[in-house]
Predict the structure of DUF429 domain-containing protein.
Amino acid sequence: MSQVVFGIDYGSKLTGNTVISVFNDGDVFFLDMSQGVDADSFILNAAEHFMPSKIFIDAPLSLPGVYRNLPGFNNYHFRKADLELNAMSPMFLGGLAARAIELKSRLKSLGLKVFETYPIVMANQLKLRDCDYKGSLQNLSSCAQEVINILPASIKIDKADIKTWHHLDALLALISAINSLFKKPKTYGHREEGLIYI
């Protein structure tokens, strides 16, 4: 398979915590950035270079439907998807959510398909809490191995490249993206308001 897909753990604009996990021609690798680098520009540049067929990003890509006067939506804090997954409110995330929604628009203007995902759901499915998911950094390696174990043997990945929990979350987002190439992803929420794809 020669399709390129991205999984992105999206962080604050200049903290260096945004990580892109890339699947390209059977290889998985990571693009990360230093503190002070503009994460949104970095993602746009990477997307223009690789032109992925799908981008799965861990960030809210829509607001509650009440703000768009969608009939039947009256929750000012949460979308249906947030409630179903016990996710944080896009309104609480404020500026990060606004950046993500703008980034989605800019990526779509390049002809790219962008999907919201939530890596913690994949982490729960893989029972990563048992290896102290997002706990002590010394347990990152064992958690990373658990994730790598579910990948087909034909996919090449170097565990040493998974240097932070942000890298692992980007990989979990990427797994949802790779899975979507083969089967219809499970969705949460309402299509008009905004879906989360796992």
Residues 4-197 form a domain with the Nucleotidyltransferase; domain 5 fold (CATH 3.30.420).
